[in-house]
Amino acid sequence: xxxxxxxxxxxxxxxxxxxxxxxxxxxxxxxxxxxxxxxxxxxxxxxxxxxxxxxxxxxxxxxxxxxxxxxxxxxxxxxxxxxxxxxxxx
Length: 90
Hints:
Layout: H1 26-34, H2 38-54, H3 57-67, H4 78-89
């Protein structure tokens, strides 16, 4: 509150308080995401994967081992990775 008793944020807030965050349904979120450009959807996907993977210690351990793999025979090319990921989408 301002020292003179004026709330400086009251001029920014609509009278109906529609600025307050309201929970969105999964269907609404899906619709909003579908309308995003592909690059922004990719950022959202990466964020969600990182969020999910960061909560799974076992997965993090497996992923670290795979990243640290020294044997090139066990590596995959970017093209192979794209192919594998595209089959997951189907």
